[in-house]
TrEMBL record:
Name of the featured protein: LacI family DNA-binding transcriptional regulator
Domain of life: Bacteria
Domain HTH cro/C1-type: start-end pairs: 26-81
Molecular function per GO: DNA binding
Amino acid sequence: MPFMSSKPRSFLASPEGLQKLEAAKAELNLSFAAIAKLAGVSADTVSRLFHPERSKQVSEASLTAIAQILAVIPEDIVTAEKMSQKDGLAEAKRRIQEAIKSKATELSLSDLELTSVPKELYQLNQLIQLDLSQNQLTSVPPKNSGSPTTSHTFPSPKINSPRFPKNSGS
């Protein structure tokens, strides 16, 4: 059953969905390159779907094509389409913690129904690009909202959000 939407959407695999993807890939004995060729997408697109921890989403069309090759149902492998603000905040904090651990320079917190930016974001000193699109941001925590015993600066990242100032610095 295809997704119904009036605007293009992108998706990440859920933890359960990732297990289904891995099982189908193993059962069919296919590499990312083979899946990509059969689905008509790039190997990078397949890799992004299999690595949601990188927070790089795949388009609905790519998701559907990959799912068809692996004989899985698209809705069974992606995170819930509409999450609550509480769930979105928890997911944002999880992604931020992953980015801290991996020292990521890019982070997507798009489409999480956020109304504010989690203060944990300011722990990402190496962040260069931040995607906050498709949220309902109404506030951003002050830079000094971190621990009083540590000093964190927040570089002025490239921010991809029509509702968010281009430069959060100063």
